[in-house]
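Job type: complex structure
Entries:
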Amino acid sequence: MTTSPRNPLDFAPDDLDRPFWEGCRRHELLLQRSRSTGRYHWPAVSDPDAGREGMEWVRASGRGVVHTFSIVHQVFRPELADRVPYNVIVVELEEGPFFHSNLVDCPNEAIRIGMPVEVVFDDLTDEITLPRFRPRDAGTER
Amino acid sequence: MAELSARDCVVVGVGVTRQGRKLGIPERELRREALDRALEDAGLCRRDVDGYIACHGGVVFEDLRYLGLGPLFSWSLASGGATAISALIVARGVLALGQATVVALGYGVSPSSFRGGSGYGRYGYGYPELFGMVGPSTSHALHAQRHMHLYGTTSEQLGAVAVTQRAYAALRPEALGYGRPITLEDHQSSRMICEPLRLLDCCRDTDGGVCVLVTTAERARDLRGAPVRVLGTGTGHNIRNWYERSVYAHHDDIAPARERAFGEAGIDLGSVDVAELYDPFTISVIMQLEEYGFCGEGEGGPFVAAGETGPTGRIPTNTGGGQLSGYYATGFTALVEGIRQLRGEGGATQVSEAEVALVSGHGGNGGVQNTWAHATALLGAGL
């Protein structure tokens, strides 16, 4: 599965999420954690209780479960024409936050809510690495 | 019923242009035509309008001159499908504070004609777009899939929403689905858009204009437009559900909006005669029916499949066909139909003796969390 290699920072309003995407290039999944509340968030954020103070990027486990998903058949953009049908999953990360991504190494028909998954880094170019997920049982196959 | 004051906000005029696909009419001309129709309906003239709220998501500098309006203020309000009711809430405040006496809520867009034909179906949410997550149908599919997982909701039950609403639309000449009822088989054989949503689970962008004129109860007594009172309003935003990790278990943050609106109106759910719920997708109706309390949690699918939202059901819902089969006017669809029902203008789908309408809207989608605002209005017939 491939995505048109658009740079994630094209979607960023500023540089506040840059550490996350640089982490992906190092194959590290980073989350924001509030030192005060211990809650994890993604992406750059202020904690509803503790605010921006004490917010730090920390490395996450990369593990989670499929919280919900869809198989997209409609070609919403010309560049997605050769990808349909493709999946979009929402991973509920072990640390709590939701993360939109794709599930790889798994046929669309086999995707189930509650499936354990783990992050796998897809190096699209030298500059662009996207975090996708695969079934956790398939972890040793790549 | 709550004690009414002279400052209470009353709808006295509604103008709706032709609604359709690819009409090719300039957007401000749609807004102009809707305004004229609303003024005619209310028995007001341009110079009576001393407040303007632009509800089409854009700036209004050119509009005012083109519309020929000279209000004391002109504000833009943008919250997607929650805009219409949100503007109504602002207008209530303005009237109550004596800042204006007649406020026009103006809307008119041509997404199927002038925006590259892409309309609203292809917008992105930021980073999720990197993974092919594009458009509101995908985001609502995530809610639908989760609802099916939690409660066993089926595609056929989603289809029941589409079929029920099309049956209403088939009887309403102004609806896009007029004269064209559909069957559950039609729904089930319609092509998949984003599983589990099929083509007939989705609404379509519509070109068209709407204008709603509101004033005080005192002023409304002297006008010819059939008055509809705003009994109560409320809002909620599901960013709160995002923080609590429950955003996919709930369609909206309805609880605070509902409690505020019903508390203000001093009525309970049993007083509601007709529901006009914001329905970009079939799942939206099912989940709102549950969260407003018309049925239990997870029971929305069977509730609709049993015909409870139809003309003889427990709560006739989206009686003009809604957005799915009527027309998509970004939250005005529901507001207009609620007003029509209370004025007895519902034609072949008029709910007999409708006294109270529940109207909802949601929108302003955005961010990686793709959360949105919800707004509730309770409307009452007469002064």
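Summary: Chain B is about 35% helix and 20% strand. The interface with chain A takes residues 121-122, 124, 126-135, 137-138, 141-143, 145-146, 149, 191-197, 242-243, 245, 247-248, 368-369 of chain B (CB under 8 Å).
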